[in-house]
Amino acid sequence: MAVPAKISGRSKRIIQEIIQETGESQIAVIEHAVLAYHREWRMQQINKGYAQLKEDAGAWKEELEERSVLEQTSEDGLDDV
């Protein structure tokens, strides 16, 4: 469902510049921007989670031990493809 939204003049100019340079539709440019923002936001959330995990010495040690075990699983004698 389309929802109208007001954006700043600056954002409108940036969108128009991208449209002119890429030939993409306005909707495509806006969707791309929203998805890029979402990826950035998710990475920030993940980084916060790891920062909190590192603050707990016991939990961080457990995380590193688990990673060590997982890193050894590729040593199965089979060729990597």
Largest sheet: none
Given helix and strand content, the structural type is mainly alpha
Distance between the termini: 43 Å
Would you tell me the overall average pLDDT? 91
Please report the number of helical segments. Answer: 3
Number of strands: 0
Low-confidence stretches: none
**From the structure provided, what is the oligomeric state, counting identical versus distinct chains?**
single chain
- Integer-rounded radius of gyration: 22 Å
Order of helices and strands: HHH
Q: Strand percentage, roughly?
A: under 5%
Q: What share of the residues lie within helices?
A: over 70%
- Which descriptor suits the 3D outline? elongated
Write out key terms for the chains shown.
81 residues, mainly alpha, 3 helices, 73% helix, 0% strand, elongated
What does this entry look like structurally?
The chain is mainly alpha-helical. It is built from three helices and no strands. It is elongated.
